[in-house]
Design a protein that fits this description.
The chain is mainly alpha-helical. It is about 75% helix and about 0% strand. Helix 1 packs across helix 5, helix 1 packs parallel to helix 6 and helix 5 runs antiparallel to helix 6.
Amino acid sequence: MITNHLLTGFTFGLSISIVSWMVGMIGNGILVKTQYYPKLSHLNFIPSRSMNKAIGIEQFKWIVKNTFFSFFNQSIKVESKNTDLSAIRHQMTLAEISHLIGFLFVAAFALYQSFNISLVFGLTMMIPNVFLNLYPSLLQQENKRRIDLLLKRQKTS
């Protein structure tokens, strides 16, 4: 029974996490028109570089850069030194908030399923959600911090 809940919870979590990307984009499209969006563009859940390293963001970055995930969101690429960093930062913010909305959507669904089916099922749903929604959001936050440093250097020179 537990093995069944582990397997089906993971599979269902994977499926709904991918669907949540669309939910996140739609939610972000609505949210971008509100007065709260500029505050959301400066979220920083894990400001410590060492903490990001400890949870494996660098390994996640390598996976994103060296697998098929690199073909998603082509607007977040620095092609040359003349690339508009503020436009890339804006695209990163859009992706970050979309992933956060998707993460919350799946987390709410997993909470519901924890009560409806089993705690094991709900918790197992969260595994793909963390890797497909939370980690991309944390990676965007780290990249935005790096871009903010570059933008600050450009202003001073």
